[in-house]
Amino acid sequence: MKLFAVIALCCSFFSARATPLPFEFLDCDDPDVLEAVDTALQKYNGDSTTGNQFALYMVTEVGPDKQFHVKYQIRETTCATEENKLWKDCDYKASAEAKTGECTAQVHMNNAEKTSNISQDCKIVPVQPMIPSTQGICLGCFHTLPSDDLQVSEILKKAIKKFNKHSEETVLFKLVEIKKAQRQVVAGWNYIIKYEIKETNCSKDQFQDLTHECKTTSEGRIGKCDAKAYENLRAEIVDIAKVVNPPTQVCPDCPRTIPIDSAELKELLKISVEKFNLETNDDVYYQATDIESATVQVVAGQNYNLVFFVKKTNCSKKEFEKLNEDCEITTDSQPLRCEAQIYVVPLEKKIIHEVNCSQYQIMV
Ligand SMILES: *[C@@H]1O[C@H](CO)[C@@H](O)[C@H](O)[C@H]1NC(C)=O
Ligand SMILES: *[C@@H]1O[C@H](CO)[C@@H](O)[C@H](O)[C@H]1NC(C)=O
Ligand SMILES: *[C@@H]1O[C@H](CO)[C@@H](O)[C@H](O)[C@H]1NC(C)=O
Ligand SMILES: *[C@@H]1O[C@H](CO)[C@@H](O)[C@H](O)[C@H]1NC(C)=O
């Protein structure tokens, strides 16, 4: 009960409005890779004298050794080279007019001396449609940081100080463990950190803030906390209670969830079930029961992934030309789990569609 009080106190403080985060937590890849690519791309932009800057589109390959061999795709932005902006600050050009390119780079980072040695080759190609991909590092996604990250400790120092100042506890609390730290590129960076604090032997009466003397006590209570922070482009922590929404174009190829009850989804589900009914050798029609998940990825068109369940109906294919409203699901039918991939190219009115269903083992 005592533990719960601390959790509520701590967490209600950091997320007073309890709104869910507006992004998806995709653990795309290593932040070191992103840093190496960032360094290489800044060099590429810095070396060119004309045209527009390029921004990272996605990382497609990372070599086996840690002194990075990377391949990444870039895309033209609206920032002119002479503006000397950081690419993260620039917007992608509309895809119909944007040049794209692929770079192969060897990046040697010397973190101690803050130097890097980069050799790379970039091939710029004129405008062409992108191929849908679920791989690659997603720029707008959250990337896990090592728990000894300097900025993370800075944020936690501030967050715990704020907690100690405002809490109704009689003693000061101290950081014991960072459970998870993640960062996302926006115009700047968003941080989300999960950590634990523990009671110390310093009372608030005697101490304004934590000092070396304050030690956690063995029977002290533990609080589980979340901190969110936003760091601007000048590397200043602007806010430690909330994060900013990423501009949508930062992560063009991140799959996004579609609401289960949307009209868009109903239509897609209908054509998927129709296709399955057409392809299956079964002599009755199947009908969809539940949707497990549905995502869409915007590429040169829309790439949908649906996972749903179907069950047999009492309509036989012999009797009916199509699944219709009078067909009811039979109670003894085993559900099949289906995965559909639908790729819609609006301009060409082309739909590439694949659906597979298989026996579904219900876990008990
Ligand atoms: C940079 O890397 C290349 C290739 O690995 C190497 O030949 C060169 O000596 C390096 N330069 C510096 C300054 O470290
Ligand atoms: C807290 O405990 C540590 C070690 O047990 C001790 O050195 C320190 O003086 C104590 N601090 C206070 C304020 O009692
Ligand atoms: C399927 O079952 C429903 C409900 O029992 C019934 O109303 C409907 O007529 C049946 N359809 C067929 C084709 O047998
Ligand atoms: C359907 O199955 C085929 C063959 O097993 C596979 O190549 C394809 O990727 C599957 N499609 C989906 C959408 O799961």
Automatic annotation (TrEMBL):
The lineage of its organism: Eukaryota, Metazoa, Chordata, Craniata, Vertebrata. Its main location: secreted. GO terms for biological process: vasodilation. Residues 28-128, 147-257, 260-363 form the Cystatin kininogen-type domain. GO terms for cellular component: extracellular region. This is Cystatin kininogen-type domain-containing protein. Keywords: Disulfide bond, Glycoprotein, Protease inhibitor, Repeat, Secreted, Signal, Thiol protease inhibitor, Vasoactive, Vasodilator. Gene3D superfamilies: 3.10.450.10. InterPro entries: Cystatin_dom (IPR000010), Cystatin_sf (IPR046350), Kininogen-type_cystatin_dom (IPR027358), Kininogen_Fetuin_HRG (IPR050735), Prot_inh_cystat_CS (IPR018073). One of its GO terms (molecular function) is cysteine-type endopeptidase inhibitor activity. It is found in: Secreted, Extracellular space.
